[in-house]
User: Fold this.
Amino acid sequence: MTSSKIVRTYIVLMSAFFLFTTSVFAEGINFENITFKKALEKAKAENKLVFVNVYAVWCGPCKLLKKTTFQSDKVAAAINNSFVNLDIDAEKGEGIEFSKTYNVKAHPLILIIRPDGKVEKRILGYMKDNQLLSELKGLLK
Assistant:
C-alpha cells in the first residue's frame, strides 16, 4: 500500500469515527454552556422560558434522569424547541448561589423560569418521559 492510500484510508476512518461520535453525543436535551444571567437574556430574546435542571453529583435519581428521561427523543425535541436549557450543579460554582436564591432543598429539581427570573413551575424528583411531558403541558411550544 502506498503512503497516499494509507493517508486516504486514515482520513476516511477518522471521518467515520467523527461522524459516529458526534451523532452519539448529540442526542438528548441540549444544555447550554452559559451563565444563568445569559440564559435569561437568551430566553427573553427568543421569547422562551428557561428550563433548569438542578442536580448534585452524588444524587442517584439525578443521574437516572439524565441517563433516561433526558435522552428520550420526544422529551429532547419538546424541551429543546421550547426552552433555553441549563444544567446546574447545586454544589459548585454558580449553582451554590442559584440554590440559595431559588430555595433548592432536594434533587433532582427542574425549575421553569421566566426571563424576569420568576419561577413559573417547580418539578421535584425523578420522572419518566411521559410524566415530565405531562408536567410541562401548557409550557411547551
